[in-house]
Amino acid sequence: MASFVPRRVFPTLDSLPRSYFLGHHRAGLNKMKTMLTYIDLVIECRDYRVPLTSRNPLFEENLAGRERLIVYTKKDLGSEGRQQDKSRERLIQEWQQPSSVLFSDHKDKSSIRKVLNFARDHAAAKDSLMGSRMMVVGMPNVGKSSLLNALRQVGVHKGKAAHTGAQPGVTRKIGTTVKIIEGDENNEGVYLMDTPGVFVPYVPNAEVHAQTCPVWKRQGHHHSSDDFSRLPTLSDEHL
């Protein structure tokens, strides 16, 4: 049997909706802006498989003024540990300077500990008796809540605090802060706040928009094998 060969050219998708900027996206983003005063670190999640199209410029515009850690989630779905993958990660880290970059699989405790160590070092440098408050942000369905739950489980050995699901939009409101690192006699520890995913208001390029559909499973688009065959051919692969 002949092996599957994905198509290199796809028809124009004029019927594909170009916007997924819902009411709770705008409300969530506005709320995040008002809470920046209390936030020491913004942890922005992006999808390892599509590092370019999972970046939302709205976060950089609206949450400026706070140090940012970028975590590329779902590494287990996009990396086979090849030299090619490692070279790609180095390019991403160079591209994101001066922001710090980590690559994570929420099922891998070693990668979760790297995020915890970064948060712990950041909190120690702040040296506040009140501890440290951090916020996790990102596009819909990039794994924000899964990361928060993993940090909580590894950091303080407690169960899930945030609901997760395969479909986007499970988190629709900013949640309460959740402890991910225990405190000591010098501070209260590190707390992380979950937030709703925020999509960009409009994507003018149909091909770029199609890249996100099979990854984020957005409403209004039924996925075929063609959707997933696009993924290996995206410009993201040529970082």
From TrEMBL:
What UniProt keywords are attached to this protein's entry? Answer: GTP-binding, Nucleotide-binding
Indicate the segments forming the G domain, all copies. Answer: 134-199
Q: Which InterPro entries match?
A: GTP-bd (IPR006073), P-loop_NTPase (IPR027417)
**Annotated spans, Disordered:** 219-239
UniProt keyword annotation of Lipoprotein present: no
Q: Provide GO CC annotations from the record.
A: mitochondrion
- Asked if Oxidoreductase is a keyword of the record, the answer is no
> GO terms for biological process?
mitochondrial translation
Biased region (Basic and acidic residues) positions are 223-239
Q: Which GO terms describe its molecular function?
A: GTP binding; GTPase activity
Fetch the SUPFAM superfamilies from UniProt: P-loop containing nucleoside triphosphate hydrolases
Q: Can you name this protein? A: G domain-containing protein
Give the species this sequence originates from.
Letharia columbiana
